[in-house]
Amino acid sequence: MAKKIILTFGTRPEAIKMAPVYFALKKDVSFSVKLVLTGQHSALLDEALNIFGMKSDYNLNIMTSGQSLADITSSAVKRLDAVYKKEKPDMILVHGDTSTTFASALAAFYNGIPVAHVEAGLRTFDKSEPFPEEMNRILTDSISDILFPPTAASLVNIKKEGLRPELISVTGNTIVDAALAISRSGRGVSPSVRRLAEKPFILFTMHRRESWGKPMEGVFDLFKNYFTSDKGVRVIYPVHPNPVVKKAAAKIMIGSDNIVLTKPVNYRDLIYLLENCLFAVTDSGGIQEEALVFGKKVVLLRNRTERPEGVAAGFVEVTGTHPAKIRACMNRLLKKKKEESAKPFKNPYGDGRASERIICALRKYFGLRAVSKIKDFE
Q1: Is-catalytic flag, 134?
Q2: Is 322 a catalytic residue?
Q3: Residue 132, preceding bond cis, omega within 30 degrees?
Q4: 3-172+353-365 homologous superfamily
Q5: Is residue 209 annotated as part of the catalytic site, yes or no?
């Protein structure tokens, strides 16, 4: 009988990173797959599901206006508990560091169901940054029976903490699988996004909770005053839908000639913008990884990163939200005008075969015959 695996997630980044795993499981007759959504970010999540052609078996729709982190976690645990009791799966597969991730693992633990954690072991070693993601990931790792660290550095973190899961496999990051698949398809890019990308531009994203208020407003002010017409470069900023971010962006940056504020773009369009930008300025975790798929450099608006591989490779510079540091970094990158992306390099985040490694590890866990001899990512 096929082993029943439930994938649970609630945000767009989770959907994107779990899509390759979902389809790899669907192709393997040894597994049956069900997809449970918490709906933590409902509109953005639906867009990602549509692009990848995924359909949910359950959508718990936990999102409410003005919800707190406690609301998300408590609601998700309670509703997932009911689903797990009904379905009685052989394993729960979770991803990353969201509140849904932790709640999914906790509900599985309460029901005695094994948990496998994709993208385990990332650490900043500061529980307040990123908040609440750092603690979500630590707690999920401690609960899980199988850990899938994407890189050797993530594996080192797991070993230092003394975690003893039943199985560990270094897989590479599934975002590389997803980004390559979307890029290779080459279809469906919005005409409006193609037009935006015709002139030299920088891709800008900023939304993190720890930057709300003065840090975020300071970065917005910098961009407004820095990107004047004499720079010859525009900024494309898909504004996050959170009301705090939208209000600050509208207050400070609307009316700036060289800054284009757009609604959130779908994943196809985001990948197209990443492929064609000069470089990215962001506080996003995922964009740190996606940019390197296309050899693009990143100015990171965080004080710390749980993805140090990009820094070590010379593609990510950590500036925090300090205007002087951001300005100096952008000055250096703009002098080049074009990135040196033609030079071949090994992507430290993955090789596009992460989902294959995950399936191999799951087959091993359940005592199924090996169908691939692929080695761990190095």
Answers
A1: no
A2: no
A3: yes
A4: Glycogen Phosphorylase B; (3.40.50.2000)
A5: yes
Query: Which residue among the candidates 123, 240, 353, 357 is catalytic per the annotation?
Result: 240
- Is 240 known to be catalytic? yes
The verdict on whether 41 is a catalytic residue reads: no
Q: Length of the chain, please?
A: 378
Q: Give CA–CA dist 47/52, Å, rounded.
A: 9
275 is known as an active-site residue: no
Q: Are 97 and 136 in contact (CB under 8 A)?
A: yes
Question: Among 90, 97, 129, 134, which one carries the catalytic annotation?
Answer: 97
Which pair of structure tokens corresponds to residue 136?
């979500």
Tens of pLDDT along the chain (378 residues) come to 999 999 999 998 999 999 999 999 999 999 999 999 998 666 678 888 998 999 999 999 887 777 889 999 999 999 999 999 999 999 999 999 999 999 999 999 999 999 999 999 999 999 998 999 999 999 999 999 999 999 999 999 999 999 999 999 999 999 999 999 999 887 789 999 999 999 999 999 999 888 999 999 999 999 999 998 888 899 999 999 889 999 999 999 988 889 999 999 999 999 999 999 999 999 998 999 999 999 999 999 999 999 999 999 999 999 999 999 999 999 999 987 654 545 667 899 999 999 999 999 999 999 999 988 899 999
Tell me which of 209, 304, 322, 327 is the catalytic residue: 209
Name the residue ranges covered by the structural domains of the chain: 3-172+353-365, 191-336
Quickly list H helices, the chain: 12-27, 42-52, 69-87, 99-110, 133-143, 152-160, 174-185, 191-196, 214-226, 243-253, 267-276, 285-293, 308-312, 323-336, 354-365
Catalytic residue (one of 14, 90, 129, 133): 133
CA–CA separation, 332 vs 337, rounded Å? Answer: 9
Q: What CATH code is assigned to 191-336?
A: 3.40.50.2000
Please tell me which residue in 12, 41, 117, 207 is annotated as part of the active site: 207
